[in-house]
Amino acid sequence: xxxxxxxxxxxxxxxAGSIVWAAVFAWAVLSIVDTSITLMPSERALLFSxxxxxxxxxxKIRPGAKDVRLVLTYAATLLFAAWHVLYSLFGxxxxxxxxxxxxxxxxxxxxxxxxxxxxxIALIPFFLVMISWWQLAGKSRGMALLNRCLPAALLxxxxxxxxxxxxxxxxxxxxxxxxxxYFVDPRASVVPAGPTKNxxxxxxxxxxxxxxxxxxxxxxxxxxxxxxxxxxxxxxIEQVNLTGWTLAGQxxxxxxxxxxxxxxxxxxxxxxxxxxxxxxxxxxxxLDRHGYTNVFLKGASLDFAGTHAFAAGHGYDRLLGYDExxxxxxxxSNYWGLHDEDMLQVAYELAEELSEDxxxxxxxxxxxxxxxxxxxxxxxxxxxxxxxxxxxSTLKAFACTNxxxxxxxxxxxxxxxxxxxxxxVQSDHLSMRNEVYAxxxxxxxxxxxxxxxxxxxxxxxxPASSIDLFPTxxxxxxxxxxxxxxxxxxxxxxxxxxxVERLGTEGLNRAISRSDKLRDRVWQLDRQLH
Length: 530
Description:
Blueprint: H1 2-11, H2 16-36, H3 41-59, H4 71-90, H5 95-104, H6 109-136, H7 141-157, H8 159-172, H9 186-189, E1 191-192, E2 198-204, H10 214-217, H11 222-228, E3 231-238, H12 246-255, H13 283-289, E4 293-298, H14 307-312, E5 318-320, H15 322-325, H16 340-355, E6 361-366, H17 385-388, H18 393-414, E7 421-427, H19 437-441, E8 447-452, E9 458-460, E10 464-465, H20 469-477, E11 479-480, E12 485-486, E13 489-490, H21 499-513, H22 516-523
Parallel strand pairs: 2-6, 2-7, 3-9, 3-10, 4-5, 4-6
Antiparallel strand pairs: 1-11, 3-8, 7-8, 12-13
Helix pairs in contact: 1-3, 2-3, 2-6, 3-7, 4-6, 4-7, 11-18, 12-20, 16-18
């Protein structure tokens, strides 16, 4: 704020228009940066102020009208805009993904509309940058000098430049492993090894194992640590490509494959398809085939990011989200949907209902409390000592949800609802940018996964990724598979090596980015997009 006031004062006195255009320029640059690097509110304010101060310094160097040429600056800006549009469409600039889009889904009206909207939105800040720079570049000798340096700086910072350099290096490197060679079809390999158990599966939003470090994060994970003493925990679950957001983490954990994109259909745009991974055999499909009643519960809307299409297409009988449940809790919601305490109340009631039936059941639920950037604290947690003592909103939200999850598990256990039941508690993915992101990145980051009710205790430190959780959960429920393998995953209790062990994390990431055969298989590309 001080920087802003000083800059505003400095711009006065015959240069009132400069501050307007400088503000437009700063906002546009901030919008571009925020698309690829999600910024915290304080970081946005700081970056905006720094850009204004930077422009002020160069405007004060021998002010007065100067002739400038903008052709090279605009050319470099438009090249940067090309990267920005491709990034907004594909999530990453990948030539194979672009060619795939042109070959397969460009004919879909819904996909075309999505592409046009995203492209126009992505270009708006670049148009503002060019217009505001036209107004500012000739205001002083300093700005004219900056204009001469800007094209080279834009080319150096443009990820397209790095992409071309990386492509040149990659052409000389070995070809990544074809993941289809490692794929084991669960339809043929997974069978019951005897009586199977019920499943309660809790995905705790962003609650990575890194948060268990008491030196950095204090008592925030205390409730989950207490739960872990009742079962066993995996401590070496890395996050690999295409598993790093909620639906992708759920797909990897329950299907044994990354959430492969379809051209511009990626990350949060899977609502553009009728089915998500129709060629994959997932946990819900297997359980449904063996007589389970499968329920999928989430505090947020199921329409967001293709969650409904995924669950409905993979064996879940009942799907409940914000739209189906919010009438029960009038006036009690947050930005993403129901508070975790209300969603868990519904989950408890469902567990009671399901346990009365003769059929085996699975109940899958997802919290929202730890969602970036600052999380959401349920009302009942606001005066809880564990929550109140946390130093940031993010940690308060994590502490609240962790406490609510433990309370939920305790209620199930005390009511006898966990008999003949496996309970899984895991993070859906690593945390995204939040108030403790720097502390998280200063640690070795791992996903959280624990199993209660299987009779095992202790720690498993096998190097793995969330795709290995699929066969691990199947084994815990009482199913067996060839060499402990299903999909691309390996049961963490089995002696077979995981793909992280075989290929290394970087090798696996490269293979995922070039796994066209596996993508074609799990998406059944003879199907049409709606």
